[in-house]
Amino acid sequence: MVVTGADGFAGRVLVSALKEEGHEVSGWVRNPPNKPIAGVKYRRVDIRDKGACTNSMEDIQPHWVFHLAAMTHVLDCQNNPKQCFETNVSGTANVFGAMPVEARGLFSSSCHVYGRPKSLAICEDHPIAPVGVYAESKALGEGAVADCGKKVVIARAFHHTGLGQPERFVLSDWAQQIRQGAAQIHVGDLSLCRDFCDVRDIVRGYMVLLGSGNPGEAYNLASGEALSLETLFGMLRGHQHCEPLAQAERMRDGDVSLLCGDPSKAEALGWRRHHDLSKTLAEMAGR
Question: Which residues 6+ apart lie within 8 Å of 125 measured at CB?
C-alpha cells in the first residue's frame, strides 16, 4: 500500500500503525526522512509531478492508497496560495489519477471545508463553505477526488494533536513553552473552540474508513465535543505555574470561532476513540 506524506505528523503515526499490523508500506516523501521507520520502503515522489506519480503507482501497483501529503499550516497556505493549490489540489488529482482502477483510496480532507457552522454538531451533509486558502484547497481537493472516477473515501478530520506534532501548531507550541518552564506562555485567541482528538485515533479512523467506507462519501473524524482553547491551555498547564500572554501576531482575522463535528457516521463503521485527550496533553507537556 501507498502512504503519501509518510514523514508528516499523521503520516508517521499511520505508517507505524500499518507496520504493526504487518502491512507492506511504500511511504512517499519529498525528502528522505531524518528518522526513517523500520521496514518502510520510502520513495521520493513530489505529488505535484504527475509523471512521477504515474510511474511510482505503476511500479508499486498498490491495493490501498492513503493520501495525506499536503500543505497543512494555515498561515503557510495563506502566504503561498499558488504552492498550496499546486500541492493540495493538483497533487491530489495526480495521486488518485495515477492510482490503479481496482485500488481503494482515502483522501485526508479537513473539517475546515465546512466554514462557519450553520448547525452543531456538524454532520457530513452540512454545506461546504470554506474560509481561507487552506480550507479552499481542501474543498477543491475533494472535487478532484470526485472527478477522478476511482474508489476513494473522504475523511474530514477535525483537529488532532499528540507527541511529535510540529511546534508550529498551537497545542504543540504551548507544550514546548511549558516544557521549557516558561512563566508566560505566548498564546493567541483563547476564546476559539475546537474539536480535538489524539492523532492515533484519527489515523485509526483513516484505516477504518479505507477498509469499510463507501467510496465517494465523506466521513467526519471528530470527538463530538468542542473545547475552548482556554480550557485546552488549562489541561496542558496542569499544576504548573504559568500564565497565558496573548500576542497580537498570534491572532488571525476571520478565524471560525467554533468547530465541532458529529462522528456518528464513522462510528457506525466501528471507529472508536481510545485515547483520553487530557492524558495526551499531559504527555505533550512532559508530565
Answer: none
Q: What residues pair up with 65 in beta bridges, in sequence order?
A: 2, 105
Q: What is the largest CA-CA distance in the chain?
A: 56
Grid cell 475546515 is found at: 112
pLDDT (tens digit per residue) in 215-269 = 999 999 999 999 999 999 999 999 989 999 999 888 877 788 999 999 999 999 9
CB contact at 8 A, 271 and 205: yes
Residues 6+ apart with CB under 8 A from 83: 71
Cis, bond preceding 121 (omega within 30 deg of 0): yes
Q: Are 260 and 220 in contact (CB under 8 A)?
A: no
Q: Which residues pair with 44 in a beta bridge?
A: 29
The Cα 218–Cα 225 span in angstroms is 19
Q: What is the pLDDT of residues 80-90, one digit of tens each?
A: 999 999 999 99
Ramachandran assignment for 242, one of left (phi > 0), alpha (psi -120 to 50 degrees), beta (any other): beta
> What's the one-letter identity of residue 22?
G
Amino acid at 275: H
Smallest CA-to-CA distance from 65 within 36, 31, 106 is with 106
Alpha-carbon span 197 to 159, nearest angstrom: 6
Residue type, 271: W
List of E strands, 83-183: 104-110, 151-157, 159-161
